[in-house]
């Protein structure tokens, strides 16, 4: 029998029961996005080092003493040089977002310090120049070893800076910011190559300097991530689209379309198996370098209404989803040697899903819900009792004072995101060589600095999506609590099935139950009165309430499916690990195989 569940969750669905909604006395959900954002701010303020002019930390391994051991050797540009132009630019985006969510209007000295550092990368051409360690990834290639001695233009960093400036302009309306943003846009556009009407960057994210690209030759392709990244997608469509959205520069939208058309037509050379198959959405290798650009194409599809962009992005998204799970865990690599995620991918997938939902495919709001509610929530780092116990146990050979000091220092990393969890364990590298060995990959918990701010972007996407005001009315897309200017939303516990909306603004309201909800059993109350259900909005996915007055209270309820899902994980060829997930609606209760060290699901001590 069609249940409404097996269309939305892969694999085999067992022991399905529908629980009636708790209509009489629903309790508020314990998931608080503002609390997660407040914690994230702690990390954003704890990561940069004021003594090193707010240099950010990339190479973080919280089970090691010390927790930071630079992956590439320190040089005259930085102690942990991979952070330059990557970790810092990603963090710069998220300070204002996390402050907005947590209700903190003012930038603090750390945020200002990171911003000044990024401004110091700017050269007269408007672009950001820095040591290119983040894009080299290795010193194993002669061309990289020579190039890494200098500063180069990073299109990746410059694109991120373009978004930061554009969003700052949107908040402040300071015209200088719009001028500077246009300056960067024009400088980036000059680096594009053209194939008729289509544009591309010839070497993906490779740095550029005086007419040369720091790219790996074909023979170097397997050397570190730089070998791959210079044959992978660049990060350009989202910066141009977001710049257009905030600053209204129509020229940028023209160029964004030209680059996106280039992706759809596959004009960037030498991509081989990294190129996204336009029919199936499939590709190989590092996932984030793909999804970061796919996000922009999806966003462009929303703002232009051009379904070709949404379709292309949806196919790539679906391919990554097929290699991942339904609870927000997506693989770092396809194929990969072991089941590990990367939070950068999780952030990208959240953004792509939000774009697909906004592009008229609202069932993707459930993907945003599941990814944020499960993978992001359970990956946010804090010194849980289980973590502290493991930390003390593996450092038994050290003095109590040294261990206490290290644990105190780790407070600065709370609110960041564990980067590479397995299906159900923060510890992704248990024997490399053994837990507690200092080093990004050696200590056991990989927490590379790119990932925490990208996890924060996932939180921000969800936050932005909860309530949206459109010409047709007020849309409530997600069952997360938010006090929004148009409406206050109170989400109920997953077992209670529903949410309450207190209207602050008059007009038509559109309330979305999860896509798996049985439409006949969904019910809506206005005040205390049960009202007839009328469906409307995109894909008829919303309950429509007409002419709501400010102060009116709407309650949406749905029966909640409780079930067990069993599927074979795809991303490690030949292994086909069987994964068993117990669900309550969109919330994960437990995941098997359960981690041996710091399980994320089904373990209250580490929750
Ligand atoms: Zn990352």
What can you see in these coordinates?
There is one protein chain. The chain has 607 residues and is an alpha+beta fold. It contains 17 helices and 23 strands. The strands form 7 sheets. The chain has a 6-stranded antiparallel beta sheet with strand order 12-13-14-20-16-17, with no helix packed on it. A hairpin with a 2-residue loop joins strand 16 and strand 17 (529-531). Helix 2 runs parallel beside helix 6 (155-172) and helix 13 packs antiparallel against helix 14 (364-379). The longest helix is centred in the N-terminal third of the chain and has 18 residues, at 155-172. The chain is globular and about 70 Å long. The mean pLDDT is 95. The site of zinc ion has 8 residues, from helix 13 and helix 17.
What ligand species are in this complex? zinc ion
Distance between the termini: 35 Å
SS field, number of helical segments: 17
* Sheet with the most strands: spatial strand order: 12-13-14-20-16-17
Helix content: 25-40%
- Could you tell me the mean pLDDT? 95
Major β-sheet annotation: 6 strands, antiparallel
The stretches of 5 or more residues where confidence is low (pLDDT under 50) are none
Shape: globular
Q: Which range does the strand content fall in?
A: 15-25%
How many strands in all?
A: 23
Radius of gyration: 24 Å
